[in-house]
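About this split. The held-out portion is used to measure sequence recovery: a designer receives only the structure tokens and must propose an amino acid at every position. Recovery is the fraction of positions where the proposal matches the reference. Here is one held-out target exactly as it appears in the evaluation file.
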């Protein structure tokens, strides 16, 4: 029997999609096959100014490479482009 590890990134309105993901997978398995485990984590994007990162670790690496302070990392864009353009006009 083969063993696989599959990583999915899912955009959904569900608060906890774990149950229906398990149901969808298990409905397609043969009798002697099984889903060994499932791990879910919520991904909240973070921003350095107006640049979005999927993880805080990626944002920290960017700050280090650009010699920026990690205090610039926020959960919302702090310099959105439309705000910059309105300040110019």
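Reference sequence for scoring:
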């Amino acid at each position: 029997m083969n063993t696989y590890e599959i990583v999915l990134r899912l955009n959904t309105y569900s608060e906890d999609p774990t149950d229906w993901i398990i149901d969808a997978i298990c409905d397609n398995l043969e009798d002697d096959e099984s889903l060994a485990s499932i791990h879910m984590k919520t991904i909240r994007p973070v921003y350095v100014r107006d640049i979005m990162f999927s993880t805080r670790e990626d944002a920290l690496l960017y700050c280090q490479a650009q010699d920026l302070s990690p205090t610039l990392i926020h959960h919302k864009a702090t310099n959105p482009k439309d705000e910059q353009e309105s300040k110019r006009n």
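Annotator remark: The radius of gyration is 20 Å.
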